[in-house]
């Protein structure tokens, strides 16, 4: 009779990882109706690319770097070839420009020291309309109380450090404005919680698709490794 001669375990080939460093607009939320775009990103990726979502609610560049459970935990896990997407701004309400810039530079350097590829991501917009139907105001576009234009600083750091940039501020602004005051409510928790900062599952899924498209456009992930639709 056939007999078991032995069992052999062959380690699976290491999948390329996409680490996410961010706040509540990116993180895995515990339940409906909240969802961060990072929570929805895996559905758009095929075998061989995985998402490690280390985004956390309430984090700023200051707190993310300072919390031993966050950056100090993430950084050693990064392997050569991994992507690390950084979107931190919503909670940097009292961070001055020099500190914000330096913190982004610290994150970029830390990723590169591990052999990873940093990618800076400008923050998703807040759904805060002007009377003319645009989002051309500091609240929507993440300009803090000190006058720090977070998207602009992020773009500047990306250019200076030669880091790929996903301008999610511009992409989400265009989408929200195209849907209008009423149509864009479904992307956020406007009706459920009068919340125009955090996304619904629908909004997070739409924003994850924008990130997917940018990853392919910028040749960070091969087209064959993503799902469309």
From TrEMBL:
Keywords: Hydrolase
InterPro entries, A to Z: RhgT-like, SGNH_hydro, SGNH_hydro_sf
Ranges of residues in domain SGNH hydrolase-type esterase: 21-179
Keyword Cell division: no
Pfam families: Lipase_GDSL_2
Coiled coil: none
Record SUPFAM superfamilies: SGNH hydrolase
Signal peptide from the UniProt entry: none
Recorded GO MF terms: hydrolase activity
Family the entry assigns: Belongs to the 'GDSL' lipolytic enzyme family.
The name this protein goes by in its record: Carbohydrate esterase
Organism, scientific name: Streptomyces cahuitamycinicus
